[in-house]
Amino acid sequence: MNGATKDTDRKRPRYISDRKGFFSAEQAERTRKRSREMEKKVRTRLSSAKGRAKALAYFDELMRYDGVRAVELKEFREKGGKVVGTLCVMVPLELIEASGAKHIRLCSGYYEPVHPANELLGDAGLCPLVKSTLGSKMVSSDPLVDMADMVAGPATCDGKMKLAEMLEDWVPVVMMNLPRVKLGGTSSELWLNEVLHLKRKLSELTGRKVTKKALVERIRKWNEASELWNKVCDLRKGKDPPISGQDAMLVVQASQSDDIDRWVVKVRELLKELEEKVRSGGSVAEKGSARILLMGSPMIYPNFKIPSIVEESGGSIVTDELCTGFRLMADPVLLDDLSEKEIYSALADRYYFPCSCPCFSPNDERLTRLFNAITTFGVDGVVFHSLRGCHLNNLEATKIELALRERGIPMVKLESEYDEGDVEQVRTRVEAFVEMLKARRKK
Amino acid sequence: MISAGIDLGSTYVKAVILKDLKRVGYGVAQTGYDHDLTSKKVFSTALLMAGLEEKDVEHIVSTGYGRRVTTLARENISEISANARGVQWLGAELGVRTIIDIGGQDTKVIAFDDDMKMINFAMNDKCAAGTGRFLEVLARELKVPLDEMGPLSLKSTDPVDITTTCLVFAKSEVAALIFKGLKKEDIIMGIHMAVARRLASMAKKVGVRDVVFFDGGPARNIGMVYAMEKELGRKMYVPEMPQIVTATGAALIAAENLKGK
Ligand code: SF4
Ligand code: SF4
Q1: C-beta of A357 in contact with ligand 1 (< 6 A)
Q2: Partner of B31 at 20 to 30 A CA spacing, among A78, A324, B16, B226?
Q3: Second-level CATH architecture of A7-208
Q4: How far apart are CA B139 and CA B134, in angstroms?
Q5: A359 CA to middle of ligand 1, Å?
Q6: Can you tell me the distance from the alpha carbon of A237 to that of A319, in angstroms, rounded to the nearest whole number?
Q7: What structural domains does chain B harbor?
Q8: A158: exposed, middle or buried (C-beta count within 10 Å: 0-12, 13-18, 19+)?
Q9: What residues of chain B lie within 8 A of the CB of A431, using their CB?
Q10: Which residues are CB-neighbours of B247 under 8 A, at least 6 positions away?
């Protein structure tokens, strides 16, 4: 069976032998301090935006560094509760909840923890997201990440796969063998088995059986959440989007670490406020701004560098094709048969087939979804961003640019790192791109 | 109607004054330490040539890398839009579809659709490869004045192959070639070919269609033009003063925005 099973008990670390001595207290403190400062800067910028919905304040508090969630989870764990950290977007969160555990997304958007990871690995050509996630764990710089009792990581890109392996030096990991060749029957069968494997590991962790009743109940809750999320996004189809692209990402990313029942309540409040805004003609975008679709590598809060530049340069992000945005909650689990087998395969399918992550091939789903979004959201142009070292997105950019060019849709490709050094270069391109889109509109 | 455009590039600052949509004055100077001061100097040179005074100029638009630094302009635009606007005007009769604009520290390739509207662009500003800086540094290494690089390179009969596009490595490669006693013209032609390869690969990503317009300061170098034509297999159209196309575009935009108000 799965090799990770017995390995989760192993004591000897593979990548770092002296976990305590590798970093000085000074280094750890610096990483924490800079992470805190970075997040604060981003939060202040987001929350001071003109015409921003008041209901968003909840999500600011939830996502902030050292925020309420870490405190809540700490208490939960003190009472014996278990927390599962997830990587990427294919781990069924319904299942984690049905086992009695809580979930947090580990993928990190903090810049500073990249440095400790570099010290261990050298440059290694890895993307900064992977390095930052590893670094956070190494120096214990993110209180939320430290809450994880177990990690569930699908083998997506090379970086994520080895990241999961490296994290095992600190915490037990369940690797999920994601079938990257997406063919239909054989692939979904394999994936279903991986989901069932996760279910067993979860039961071992929490000491609770996952009952059918609990799972169906959790699936229904998440379907409700997905429906709400789609409603929020629908409001961005109109001429006056009531929520910025950055805030929308903040909201959907919160779902990955929040208590989903509470998230649903809060998003319902938000939706009401946004609908009111639309009725009264309020818009968060400047008049005449260019309608942008954002896609490419993940952008995890607080790494909102690219979307903030876009929205500061006269662009309005009306939708995205990102694993850290719309895609996260776009699709519900289609439950039409309540036999145990059908429930699990419906759940596994939801996290597999609609996912347009570039680690899959064929991945024509991504193009289909992209063109669909371009039409329904009235998109003027596409901003494709690739993190340095993100080979999969870098590669797919070529294919996507060609497909867009054939349809006469402009695309700009940007590359970025986890630091502020490239902001001005990116800004020049984005400004030129937005100017170009506006000039094309004037006929 | 009198308008002006100021292009604050990384190596040169350029200014253009338009009177009733005719170029009546321009100025060019090396970007000093104080960009604002340089922009004012260049602007007054252009005013002098035009026989105008500062108060006669109704609207100024700045562009380029230092566009937010100058205190002269009340409006600014990216150098990509400004360059495209300049070419739409200067190259209207040519029917330009592709622009290769080679600057001191960055190079842009712009694609036009059939209505000469910008549809795509690429920009290289992360390293010196494929920029004027590459030529400048290597010219110094060879002790050849920049202006003589072009004519000299055309005498080459056996161009050397410069294998690297990284400026740091190219410097030592060129030093080794000089040491070996190879002819200057052959080395220079090799340098031009290396830059051309880099520009061509960038252009292909954007999509190259005839007519190709070649501008920016280094486009004055006839050896560079020759190398580009060879590498792309297409004719390059170089305007009369390729270094002030972007400033001209900014001046045009200033005129249009004045009319719009
Ligand atoms: S694009 Fe795919 S592999 Fe990359 S972070 Fe997102 S889900 Fe993971
Ligand atoms: S898909 Fe790209 S951004 Fe995501 S973890 Fe892999 S390399 Fe990093």
Answers
A1: yes
A2: B226
A3: 3-Layer(aba) Sandwich (3.40)
A4: 9
A5: 7
A6: 8
A7: 1-91+243-261 (3.30.420.40), 95-238 (3.30.420.40)
A8: middle
A9: 78
A10: B5, B6, B7, B14, B15, B16, B26, B63, B82, B86
Residue whose structure tokens are 């001429």: A239
From first to last of the 443 residues of chain A, give the pLDDT tens digit. 444 444 445 568 888 887 777 888 898 999 999 999 999 999 999 999 989 999 999 999 999 998 899 999 999 999 999 999 999 999 999 999 999 999 999 999 999 999 999 999 987 889 999 999 999 999 999 999 999 999 999 999 999 999 999 999 999 999 999 999 998 788 999 999 999 999 999 999 999 999 999 999 999 999 999 999 999 999 999 999 999 999 999 999 999 999 999 999 999 999 999 999 999 988 888 888 999 999 999 999 999 999 999 999 999 999 999 999 999 999 999 998 899 999 999 999 999 999 999 999 999 989 999 999 999 999 999 999 999 999 999 999 999 999 999 999 999 999 999 999 899 889 999 999 999 999 988 75
What does the alpha-carbon distance between residue B152 and residue B185 come to, in Å, rounded to a whole number?
6
Q: What is the ipTM of this complex?
A: 0.84
CA A199/CA A209 separation, integer angstroms:
9
Phi, psi of A104 (to 5 degrees): -140, 150
Q: In this complex, which of A410, A425, A431 lies closest to B78 when CB atoms are compared?
A: A431
Q: What ranges in A207-297 are assigned the alpha helix state H?
A: 212-234, 245-254, 260-279
Give the largest Cα separation in chain A, rounded: 67
Q: Does A312 touch chain B (CB under 8 A)?
A: no
Ligand 2 pocket test, pick from A126, A132, A160 with the greatest ligand atom count within 8 Å of Cβ, gives: A160
Distance from CA of B186 to the nearest CA of A (A): 35
Q: How many helices (H) and strands (E) does chain A have?
A: 17, 8
Q: Any idea which residue has 């390729």 for tokens?
A: B242
Cα distance from A304 to chain B (closest Cα, Å)?
A: 22
- CB B73, CB B67: distance < 8 Å: yes
CB contact under 8 A, B119 and A428: no
For residue B212, give the nearest of B229, B198, B197 by alpha carbon.
B229
- Yes or no, beta carbons of B117 and A408 under 8 Å apart: no
Residue A202 Cβ < 6 Å to ligand 2 = no
